[in-house]
Structure formats: C-alpha cells, structure tokens
Amino acid sequence: MVASMLARYRASLIAMLSVGAIGIWPMVIAPLGRVYIAVCARYLTDASFGHHYPPLVVAFLTPIITVLLVGLLVALARQLWRQHRLAAVAALRCDDAGAALRQIIHDLGLTWRVAVTRDQAVYAFCAGLLRRRIYLSRGLVDLLTAAELEAVLRHERHHLRQHDPLRYFVADLLDRLAPLFPVLATLTSRMRINAELSADRAALTHTPVEILASALVKVMRAGTPTTPQLAVASLSPTDARVATLLGRPVVMPFDWRDVVVSIGVVLTAAAVLTWLALQQLPLPPMCSTCPPF
Known about the structure:
The protein has 293 residues and is mainly α. It is built from 12 helices and 4 strands, in the order H-H-H-H-H-E-E-E-H-H-H-H-H-E-H-H. The longest helix has 38 residues, at 55-92.
C-alpha cells in the first residue's frame, strides 16, 4: 500500500523535496537573484515602489511563472490551431443537414452555428474558444429520430451558451498540474460532469426524459468514436448522466489523501518562500589568494 501511494504521489513528493532543497541551499537560485538585483540597479533605480522584492523570492518564482506562461501559450496555440483545422475539415466534409434538421436548427436559434459532417462515426460536440460551433456527424443524424436530435441540440446549445469549451480548456490546463496537486484531477472531473448534467437539465426543460435517455443509449450502443483533440463539450455517455436520467443519486468519489498531499505542496512552497524572503542573498565565493582591490 505504501509503495502504491508513493507511486501515485511521486510527482508531488519530488516537488516538495525539490522546494525544500532550495530552502536549505538557496545558493542554487542565487545567480538569478543577482541578475534581478542587476536589472533593478540598471533600470528600476527611480521606481516609485522603492527597492523592490526579496531577490531570492524573485529567483524562486521566476522559473515557475515562466514555465507556466510558456505552457499556457503553447496549449493555447495548439488549441487554436486544432480548432482552425477542425473548422477547415468540417467545411470540406460538410454534409446536407436535410429539411427536418434544418428546421430544428432554425427553431432553436442555431442557424450558422451547426455543422453536419459526412462522418459515419456517432458524435455531437460543441467546440471553439472564440467562435463556438456545434458539430454533428452523419452517423448521429441517421441514427437518431427528429425528437432525439432536438434533445441533442438543446444539450449542445447549453454548452455553446455557457462557453463550456473554454471551461473545458481551463480544465485541461489544470489537469496538467494534477501530478503536483492531485486534488485538481477530482475538481476538473467534477467540473466536466457538472457541465454535462447542467446541459442535460437545460435539454429536459423542453424534452421528455425518455427522449434524451433514448438518444444517450443509442450513442452508447454505437460506441465511443475517436474525437478531435480539442477542448470540447460533448454528448459523452457518462455514468453520472445515466444515473441522473434514471433518477439515481450521483456519487462522485473524493479521496482526502489528494487534498492532504496538495495542501502539503502548497504549505511547503509557502514556507520556503517565507524563509527565502528573510534570507540575505549569498555572496559569491571569494578567492583567498587574490590580492585585495
């Protein structure tokens, strides 16, 4: 059991040990602190806020913030590029929605916001950070009845109006930090489940539960297709949705060990930051054999 816990929280333990090592041996980050002092002396001498921040704190935080910002920019660029490719592919593989589906789309106020592709895989999702659109496959359109398609579109319309693709993108970013802060995995999972349940509730305000349940069952039986690597809000058949449609309570597991480990990482970093703020910047080693100047 101990071995499994160590394997599960390995990244968090390594982070705490690394941060603790910096607190014990601040000379590891001292060169960055000296660079910060040089920059302040060169460019910020007359700054109104005086001199400035503890050099070791700046040296500790600068690499962390830099890595986070670079990761955010890379993830955002990839997301926008994949969205561009998805829109281009959808335009090339666009299929005729048919008169019945076009009428449903018009009645729901989704004109120009729905794209039907020629894919025979069964899927429906809302994607796009800036320009959100709903994508339906020909396989889904052929599989579901008109009433079921309306239920699916009401579900996806809620995702579109609530900017859920953006929320899913944020959840994906937080998932990348989950190895360090395990509680984030639980929180992002709950975020996605709650978004799906909220979309179901929006659909059920105008759709009988039997219709939405029937659409969900058909999608489940058709299998889960390969979806684009995008932050999408999709009609995903989850146990939570099935339980809700059946009137059963939704139980989302929660491991308090994840909370304890995550708090441990935060407290370790806070303690080291406080300690570094109180320390003088270590001087570079002096040569005892060199003559004084």
